[in-house]
Amino acid sequence: MSARETSPLHWSARYVGLPWLDGGRTVEGVDCWGLVRLVFKLERGLDLPDYGEIPAHKLISVARAVTAGKEGEDWQPVVKGLQRAFDVCVMRLPQGRSTGHVGVMVDATRVLHVEAACDAAIVPLSHFTIRERVACFRRHRAM
Fold this sequence. Notes:
The protein is α+β, with helices and mostly antiparallel strands. The chain has a single domain, classed as endopeptidase domain like (from Nostoc punctiforme) (endopeptidase fold (from Nostoc punctiforme)), CATH 3.90.1720. It has four helices and eight strands, in the order H-E-E-H-H-H-E-E-E-E-E-E. The model has no long low-confidence stretch (mean pLDDT about 85).
């Protein structure tokens, strides 16, 4: 049995507090897509596309690609209310209408995400910082 299988911590606890780093893709620091990629790699053994070494301000294109179900239809829409762990939560930018931020669902009601304003954190979908920003949910076909 691996340490991960015997650990009393929920998988998501390993990512809480990871620092935000523009273009970050490792435990040393991540941007929102970097966090999603890291979780999928370490928890599910799935290598998501990197979309190049892009800075956070260009992650709008990543969020839109996931929203549109691009990358060979890898991202399937999830009906709101039926989301589950490892679904991707696509959010609008703060004070904006366009999507440009992503996080990973911890369970049906909480999302793990990171932004320049804060280190990686788990927040309920009802939290004032994101409740009006949630645009949709997507599930990778491998899930």
